[in-house]
Specification:
Mean pLDDT: 78
Number of domains: 1
Oligomer: single chain
Number of strands: 5
Structural class: alpha+beta
Order of helices and strands: HEEEEE
Strand content: 15-25%
Length: 118
């Protein structure tokens, strides 16, 4: 009887150790899943921001196109884009667009670590 209790106790200990190992793996995978979810959320936020930036660029380009058509109709000079900023002269007035940041444009990083693509 004592031997069977010892045998059962050893089996319970072995099963407890196996259960602990499984729980450790579950916690590890849960942590990895949470990290992946966070990366997905960050990527979604980045996509939304880039989409908004593209919509703003589209609006700016429409304004430039409209001013260009206005200039063509009035016989004025065509707008020019210099350093990412559109400039047009209509009847002596100068129109400037906000700076246009193009995707894939090289920029220096603020920490001096080098250059990267935006």
């Amino acid at each position: 009887m004592q031997e069977s209790l010892t045998s059962i106790d050893q089996k319970v200990d072995a099963l407890t150790m196996q259960l602990d190992a499984v729980m450790h793996k579950i916690k590890k995978h849960d942590s990895q899943l949470k990290e992946a979810e966070q990366r997905i959320c960050t990527a979604e936020d980045d996509l939304v921001a880039k989409g908004e930036m593209l919509l703003n660029m589209e609006k700016i380009l429409k304004v430039i196109a409209a001013k260009n058509e206005e200039l063509k109709a009035s016989g004025g000079d065509s707008p020019q884009i210099v350093d990412g900023q559109a400039t047009a002269v209509v009847s002596g007035a100068v129109y400037h667009s906000p700076p246009i940041k193009l995707l894939g444009q090289r920029q220096s990083t603020s920490d001096g670590a080098g250059e990267g693509y935006t």
